[in-house]
């Protein structure tokens, strides 16, 4: 059993180049949390997390200042680290299972929200979970990701891709000309935020009109491009509504429009169209719906699969590696494809995500794996943040013509995720 004798926490604020819009709101930056764990044997684990109150519980974000929301999530991380010192564990998965209930209850207490979304607590636990994984590997003499994953959870990760499509994010404010530039530069899988609130009045009819116009403009601009990475040779679309559509009927207005303009078959994924509480069978929706925020846990993922959702967005960087491995296993058993989505995380966390994305089966219609990453589009200090990565010079950290190339070095080093960053170590220890 691994016993933790000491924990330390710190954070660093990183600002965005411009307000980042989704779920009808806008973020100005993200807190990078750092958790240090030291065992009774003197081994250490250093874990990072990127906080997003808007993604994890939009109500918290709307009803509080951005600073106050971040402070609440940070307090959950702090409490979880305190609790971790009282919980001996065999694997980080065991530790997380014991931490989630009290961390969630503590979150409800400090936010004053009894229906707090579980993802708020899980987002707060990412740094803790990652620290536990590093500590676990240090204790067990494990040097690679494949050895790190417990045998009972390996079934969800059967591949070793040599290429991953690097998916950029096109938020509400990204001009069409910039989308065209991205495609000209080699990007070929577009994640498009829909569900805008153009006049900030909550009018769903205006939202649908805006989404129709946005899809029409993008489709008209890129519909004739040919690429070698999809079965049909065309650029696929990944629409993310973040729960903004209130009914299947309203969603069908957009999809009927997509059919009319010839874009329906290009929609490879429609992510989280409905609010989490809208529990309806979605098998009659003519595109593959993916669960993201609503698939908090393996139990929730199974519920969404039974409702007809045809894909799961894994977020090791937002819902913890431990929970993501459990979700991937359930999805593989049900033959439901998974993919890794971003949370606008720092460069080191991109590679935590990449290790999972590199091992997932391709999405139906794709010839290669995929990984969404948008930090380079949004962080003001992205290049400085890259320098904090122990392997920042490695070729596999960079997108080239829309691809991450994963060579033997990537797999041998596990993307550097088990190597503590000196920058973040100094931030948390001060020496």
Describe this entry's structure for a reader.
It is a single chain. The protein is 41% helix and 18% strand. With 431 residues, the protein is α/β, with parallel strands linked by helices. It has two domains: 4-143, Enolase-like, domain 1 (2-Layer Sandwich), CATH 3.30.390; 151-417, TIM Barrel (Alpha-Beta Barrel). The strands form three sheets. The protein has a seven-stranded parallel beta sheet with strand order 5-6-7-8-9-10-11. A three-stranded antiparallel beta sheet has the order 1-2-3. Helix 4 (92-111) runs antiparallel to helix 5 and helix 10 (298-306) runs parallel beside helix 12 (321-333). The relative contact order is 0.14. The model has no long low-confidence stretch (mean pLDDT 95).
Q: How are the secondary structure elements laid out?
A:
Blueprint (H helix, E strand, L loop, with lengths): L3 E19 L2 E15 L4 E7 L2 H4 L1 H6 L2 H19 L7 H20 L6 H23 L4 H4 L14 E5 L1 E2 L5 H9 L5 E4 L10 H19 L14 E4 L7 H13 L6 E5 L17 E3 L6 H9 L4 E4 L1 H4 L1 H13 L4 E3 L6 H11 L11 E4 L2 H4 L3 H5 L16 E3 L2 H6 L8 H8 L2
Parallel strand pairs: 4-12, 5-6, 6-7, 7-8, 8-9, 9-10, 10-11
Antiparallel strand pairs: 1-2, 2-3, 4-13
Summarize it.
This protein is α/β, with parallel strands linked by helices. It has helices at residues 53-56, 58-63, 66-84, 92-111, 118-140, 145-148, 176-184, 204-222, 248-260, 298-306, 316-319, 321-333, 347-357, 375-378, 382-386, 408-413, 422-429, and strands spanning 4-22, 25-39, 44-50, 163-167, 169-170, 190-193, 237-240, 267-271, 289-291, 311-314, 338-340, 369-372, 403-405. Strand 2 and strand 3 (44-50) form a beta hairpin.
């Amino acid at each position: 059993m691994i016993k933790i004798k000491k924990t330390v926490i710190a954070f660093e604020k990183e600002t965005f180049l411009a307000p980042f819009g989704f779920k009808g709101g806008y973020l100005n930056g993200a807190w990078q949390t750092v958790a240090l764990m030291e065992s009774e044997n003197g081994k250490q684990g250093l874990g990072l997390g990127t906080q997003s109150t808007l993604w994890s519980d939009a109500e918290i974000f709307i009803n509080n200042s951005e600073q106050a929301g971040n402070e609440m999530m940070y307090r959950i991380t702090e409490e979880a680290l305190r609790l971790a010192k009282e919980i001996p564990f065999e694997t980080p998965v065991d530790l997380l299972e014991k931490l989630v209930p009290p961390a969630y209850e503590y979150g409800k207490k400090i936010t004053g929200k009894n229906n707090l979304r579980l993802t708020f607590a899980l987002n707060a636990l990412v740094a803790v979970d990652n620290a536990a994984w590093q500590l676990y590997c240090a204790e067990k003499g494990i040097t690679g990701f494949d050895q790190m994953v417990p045998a009972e959870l390996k079934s969800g990760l059967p591949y070793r891709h040599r290429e991953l499509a690097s998916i950029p994010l096109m938020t509400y404010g990204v001009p069409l000309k910039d989308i065209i530039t991205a495609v000209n530069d080699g990007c070929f899988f577009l994640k498009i935020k829909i569900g805008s609130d153009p006049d900030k009045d909550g009018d769903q009819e205006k939202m649908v009109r805006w989404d129709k116009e946005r899809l029409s403009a993008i489709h008209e601009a890129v519909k004739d491009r040919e690429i070698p990475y999809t079965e049909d040779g065309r650029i696929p679309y990944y629409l993310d509504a973040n729960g903004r559509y209130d009914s299947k009927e309203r969603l069908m207005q957009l999809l009927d429009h997509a059919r009319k303009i010839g874009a329906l078959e290009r929609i490879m994924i429609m992510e989280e169209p409905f609010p989490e509480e809208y529990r309806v069978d979605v098998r009659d929706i003519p595109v593959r719906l993916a669960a993201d925020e609503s698939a908090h846990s393996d139990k929730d993922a199974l519920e969404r699969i039974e409702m007809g959702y045809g894909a799961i967005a894994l977020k090791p960087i937002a819902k913890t590696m431990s929970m993501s491995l459990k979700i991937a296993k359930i999805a593989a058993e049900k033959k439901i494809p998974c993919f890794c989505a971003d949370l606008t995380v720092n460069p080191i966390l991109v590679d935590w995500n990449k290790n999972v994305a590199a091992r997932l089966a391709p999405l139906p219609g794709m010839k290669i794996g995929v990984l969404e990453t948008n930090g380079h589009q949004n962080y003001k200090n992205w290049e400085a943040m890259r320098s904090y990565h122990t392997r920042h010079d490695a070729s596999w950290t960079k997108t080239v013509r829309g691809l991450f190339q994963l060579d033997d070095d990537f797999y041998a080093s596990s993307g550097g995720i088990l190597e503590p960053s000196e920058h973040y170590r100094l931030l948390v220890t001060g020496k």
